[in-house]
User: Fold this.
Amino acid sequence: MDKMPAWADAVLVPLISVFLAAAISALVILSIGENPLNAFSIMVEGALSSSRGIGYTLYYATNFIFTGLAVAVAFHARMFNIGGEGQAMIGGLGVALVCLFIPWPHWSLALLGATVIAALFGAAWAYIPAFLQAKRGSHIVITTIMFNFIAFSLLNYVLVNMLKPQGSSDPATARFPEATHLPTFQSMFSTADNVMFRNAPANVTFFIALLACVAVYLLIWRTRLGYELRSFGQSETAAVYAGISPVKITIVAMLISGGLAGLMALNTTMGEAERLVLNATEGAGFIGIAVALMGRSHPVGILLAALLFGFLYQGGTELAFWTSIPTQLIIVIQALVILFTGALDNMVRMPLEKIFLNIRKGDA
Amino acid sequence: MTFMKTILGSAAALALSAGAALADPALIYDLGGKFDKSFNEAAFGGAEKWAAETGGSYKDIEIQSEAQREQALRRFAEAGFNPVVTTGFAIAGAIDAVAADYPDTKFVTIDGWVDPAKHPNVLSILFSEHEGSYLVGMMAGMASKSGTVGFVGGMDIPLIRKFACGYAQGVMAANADAKVISNMTGTTPAAWNDPVKGSELARAQIGQGADVIFAAAGGTGLGVLETAAKEDILSIGVDSNQNHLFPGEVLTSMLKRVDVAVFDSMTQGADLETGVKVFGTAQDGVGYALDDNNAALVSDEMKAAVDAAREQIIAGELKVHDYSSDDSCPVLQF
Assistant:
């Protein structure tokens, strides 16, 4: 029997964690002589009160949804894919190749092509660690994190020596042709006399992220593969006894995971920058771990957690603009949320479980 | 209720401060941050000097992500900051995208290039790093007894290859038989701040016979300079004058006057002259550092030769090959 009701596990624990993180952040802000309420209202105002702020929040959230889902899928098979960063980078390389070298007639076709290639490239990058884990037992945590560095070096090499326009000192590709530019929220939601989401980077990729959430839900809880994945994650020996091949599940789970991480590049590379820059992933692969942990590896939870982190990113930027709180402290605030929702999860969960057990005893 | 008040209050304060900020300059640092002991910190130094001398105030921000480049430019332009000064070549693309939307705001890109015909309100400041590197390369070639000198770059990007190529040409000009060993610290931005790796590379180059090493690697360079001092060979600093870090052990520093560029831009304020400005040898934008700390290391002969080369570069008689002009270097393989 569960120790506490599902709603408490899914809602109460993260909420209390976020609240604790916010309280400690407030103390930190107080200690450097700024007003935490003021800081909080700047964050809320900057991230949520205008359509432009929301546009930025959703842009960041889109990245985190993809990487969060990537971590979650692997996590259901009890694997810790911390290579989302590298898989997204290689996905970005795929997107750049598709956008630069194929003359697309229309953005929708370009998006379709780029989606397939980004997922394939990301999956391919995850394949090698997956193969090593499945066949050789090399630990996936070690190999995926090492593959992040290899991805970065590879990308740097390709950009500096092959894809960079000659004479440019910026290690980035040329701008993608006009036909591959994705519609932004501004062009989708603005009317003639009311410009919405002005200049915000949120784009059509957000809806692909939502589709990915649905797809992952269906995959994990409504398909045979998802069932195999979860049973493998729960108990490998039981799964083997039930005729599930550990090699196959390990590789398939990592391929799906890598593909999802690769899709993130659609948002940053095709949607926002419209060219491939060296630093396109910006740590979103790692934030994805926190997002997946906080969202309990469930697409709905991941969506909410990604929105929270999108808010923290955009709100943090606004803090940097309008207060004298140093950037490092803003990172501390973001890190506190990760710490409390990810690492210190049990600190909140255990006392809460005790409380619920006591309540039940009282009922009985 | 009180919370609502706070929100409204802060909104009002925001509006007020935005008004008060009118015509103050703003400074956007590149990724890597304000206190990188190198490029961005030099920009910060120039801004601080401007603030101290004029009593003016400025707003600065360290961006954390690519998407924030455009965001920061727009927010500062909309709040009335003028000019908006930026460091690093990576932001040039974002300026290209936003400049036309704010015709009354002047943008300055240090190290970046924006087409002046397309955007009349942008000033691109470029440094002739290859010329400055050539000059210190000559000094290295003359100071070296073993005939082997080293170069330690930060991240392997075209800009750093430009440094390396100019340096190698200078070394060859002083000693045609010299050997130049070139190493890059890495391929990620972490390469800008890895003094331990810098120290390792310096040791490896010393092992191959190098007795002068030029570090163009941001914070990583500190490790190079320190190891060189410990092993009792000469080193060359970069960007700021780093001679004082290890007095008597640093041959010279290749100066890149980012601080002067920022100071000038802020001093000119909203009336800034736009276009493309090259901070070359002639403008004292790049050069070599000579002070009490390295006076004993620089012989009269060395000084005479370097100053002669400097004059020749200014007069246009001596052309130093610029790596970024054709992405290749005649004297050094990457």
